[in-house]
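Lecture notes, part 5. Sequence design as translation. It can be helpful to think of inverse folding as translation between two languages: the language of shapes and the language of residues. The source text, in structure tokens, appears below.
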């Protein structure tokens, strides 16, 4: 199975006191990175052997990720990486707009702690110079996670971690990482510049427009992608 060899490298992350949550963390990351694309059936034997964990621990990790909407259990078939419906993608963006814009709106008075955002913007620009469009996608996710982290809320961080991981399921279906993510590098920089200048209202306006435009684009291309039987029947 694709990704199993790489997954075995993660075994070192598990200690003798490893839990289903740690296994879920590893699988969540691997799913987000595209090692297990949407529609992939996850083999208990292969994954359990690679990580060196019991069947019960692995099943509990699967249950956790199913609750997070990253996996789906199909009766008599097994556990699969979820293929999002088009409506799911639109709903993810509605959630993002509510949360991310609220975070910017509630930042208080400048100056803001923007080190994380600066790092994410620079990461994306460096990846673009190297024509690493998957890296640009990852940096873009980091940008939005760092933005939400400015709220200083562990609950909001957890919510957005799940939302953004779910969104990456859509990204992996659309085979155009450059087209999806390159246009937003400049917009990330614009939002950062507004916050550096202490212009919170401007940053919120830019972010809202950014998310609306991104939703329109991704829903459009994703709807075409999932029309492909090779995706829906994977």
């Amino acid at each position: 199975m694709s990704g199993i060899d790489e997954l075995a490298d993660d075994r070192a992350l598990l200690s003798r006191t490893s839990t289903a949550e740690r296994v879920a963390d590893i699988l969540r990351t691997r799913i987000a990175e595209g090692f297990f694309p949407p529609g992939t059936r996850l083999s208990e034997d292969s994954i359990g052997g690679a990580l060196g964990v019991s069947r019960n621990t692995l099943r509990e990790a699967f249950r956790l990720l199913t609750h997070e909407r990253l996996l789906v259990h199909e009766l008599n078939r097994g556990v699969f990486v979820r293929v999002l419906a088009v409506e799911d993608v639109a709903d993810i963006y509605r959630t993002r707009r509510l949360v991310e814009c609220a975070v910017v709106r509630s930042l208080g008075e400048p100056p803001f702690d923007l080190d994380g955002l600066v790092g994410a913007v620079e990461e994306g620009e460096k990846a673009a110079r190297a024509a690493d469009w998957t890296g640009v996608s990852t940096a873009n996710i980091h940008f939005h996670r760092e933005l939400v982290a400015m709220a200083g809320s562990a609950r909001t961080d957890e919510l957005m971690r799940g939302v953004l991981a779910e969104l990456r399921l859509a990204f992996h279906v659309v085979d155009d990482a450059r087209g999806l993510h390159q246009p937003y590098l400049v917009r990330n920089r614009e939002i950062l510049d507004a916050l550096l200048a202490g212009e919170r209202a401007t940053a919120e306006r830019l972010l809202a427009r950014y998310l609306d435009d991104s939703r329109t684009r991704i829903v459009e291309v994703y709807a075409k992608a999932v029309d492909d039987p090779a995706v829906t029947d994977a």
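The translated text above is only one of many valid answers, since several sequences can fold into similar shapes. Residues 229-234 have pLDDT under 50 and may be disordered.
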